[in-house]
Write a structure and sequence with these properties.
The complex is a heterodimer of chains A (45) and B (379). By secondary structure, chain A is low in regular secondary structure. Chain A is built from no helices and 2 strands. A two-stranded antiparallel ribbon of chain A has the order 1-2. Chain B has a 3-stranded mixed beta sheet. The longest helix of chain B has 26 residues. Classes of the chains: A little secondary structure (45), B mainly alpha (379).
Chain lengths: 45, 379
């Protein structure tokens, strides 16, 4: 709090944290870069 | 000539002679990997120590499964058990395949915490003889001698080869362990096919032991002679927005096996060599190399898996991606720790876990209405 010239208490404006949705991908999910077709590895038997 | 360094104790030695020779001369795809523990030299190579451990583990499990003393196990009996129990399984699963496929996908999505926006599964259980291996799968490397020499004379490329061979080994090792997952889901499986799980156990353990009894040369002839010997395969498809794992198998546990291989192969794409990836893959990815991955790497996969805390299995996929993304040299350094100082290797894993948990917590804080959950912190 602070006091005005009239000596009346006024609430200090407080900054409310704002959540901005992250544009990044969800890190709990796998993110595999797409490989070239002949570089993805061969099928496995 | 050097004596074999296999240490089989009182276990009957049913291992194919050419496999023993290759282990002794280290003339197999997993021979002389630079991170192997060398403390048993010159009596036993590390590969011989691993093979001994795995072989004895398989013999014990076979004896236990079939309720016979290990001294009574013989090659013909193993081959016949593998064949007869496999065919019984296939007959019992007949008519229940679509339910089993659905269950396999459910289990694997749960085990690896994989959502529908991360991977698509295209799964099929087929009749024996119907599974044709894709043409790009070759017994030996298709590279020319000159191309092979170019790789072998380049230290950096050889490090990539070691890394690729190791990850391929992990894919097979994990799959060999995973096909026994049916024990954990026996109730659900038997609600579809009653009384089948004891037969799964018989067919799988006989088949796993079979890889020690039969030589590379005989297996090669079998695979080349007829499609009826193909139990399954897995391939990756990146043509769509979401990567797809295509797995075909002759029964449920082999399908689990193939899906596991597909998942590790998918995660490994994040760590493909930066240069000459196709050549490295052509050098390393052969059917003969797979036989050795099957023989030796269940042991090393278990060593890796054991240093991942079970509470972190929900992010095992992320841990493996981080390991596979390491430069070849750093990856080899990690493998060396796993071999010599698993406590230090575990610290590396723990550091990856901490980083991943933090990233997930931060993301959830920024995106979730409810804020942070302590479970995101692993608390």
């Amino acid at each position: 709090m602070y006091f005005t010239e009239k000596n009346s208490p006024v609430e200090t404006p407080t900054e409310t944290p704002v959540k901005t949705p992250s544009p990044t991908k969800n890190p709990s999910k796998i993110d595999i870069p797409k490989p070239n077709e002949d570089e993805k590895g061969k099928p496995k038997a | 000539m050097r004596n074999s360094g296999l240490k089989l104790g009182d276990y009957p030695n049913l291992i194919a002679q050419s496999t023993i020779d290759k282990l002794s001369k280290r003339t197999h795809p997993l021979g002389k990997l630079p991170y192997y523990d060398q403390s048993t030299h010159p009596e036993s190579w590390r590969e011989e120590v691993i093979a001994s451990q795995r072989y004895k583990e398989l013999m014990d499990s076979y004896a236990n499964t079939f309720q016979i003393p290990k001294e009574m196990i013989n090659p013909m009996g193993v081959i016949m058990s593998a064949g007869s129990s496999m065919y019984s399984v296939i007959n019992m699963e007949n008519g229940k395949r679509s339910n089993l496929i659905e269950l396999a996908e459910k289990i694997m999505r749960f085990e690896w915490n994989l959502d529908h926006d991360e991977v698509i599964f295209d799964l099929e259980i087929m009749e024996p003889g119907e599974i044709k291996l894709p043409e790009e799968m070759t017994m030996e490397s298709p590279l020319s001698p000159d191309d092979k020499e170019e790789i072998e004379n380049d230290e950096d490329l050889m490090a990539e080869v070691v890394k690729r061979r190791t990850i391929n080994g992990f894919a097979q090792g994990a799959s060999l362990r995973a096909h026994y997952l049916f024990h954990l889901y026996a109730d659900e499986i038997e609600s579809i096919v009653p009384n089948i799980t004891p037969l799964y156990q018989k067919s799988l353990i006989a088949n796993d032991l079979f890889y020690y009894i039969i030589s590379d040369e005989m297996l090669k002839n079998q695979i080349e002679s007829s499609d009826s010997n193909n139990a399954g395969y897995v391939s990756l498809d990146f043509s769509g927005e979401i990567p797809k794992i295509i797995a075909k198998a002759i029964n449920f546990p082999i399908l689990i096996h193939e899906i596991t291989k597909g998942i590790i192969s998918l995660l490994s794409v994040a760590g493909l060599p930066k240069e000459m990836a196709k050549k490295i893959i052509d050098y390393t990815d052969t059917i003969i190399a797979e036989l050795w991955d099957i023989r030796l790497f269940p042991v090393l996969w278990s060593n890796l898996h054991s240093i991942i805390d079970p509470n972190d299995h929900d992010i095992k996929k992320l841990i493996l991606i981080e390991l596979f993304k390491k430069d070849a040299e750093d990856f080899i350094e990690f493998m060396s720790l796993l071999e010599h100082r698993p406590d230090y290797a575990k610290k590396e894993i723990d550091a990856i876990v901490k980083q991943k948990r933090y990233e997930i917590m931060e993301y959830n804080f920024m995106n979730d209405e409810d804020g942070i959950s302590l479970s995101d912190l692993g608390l």
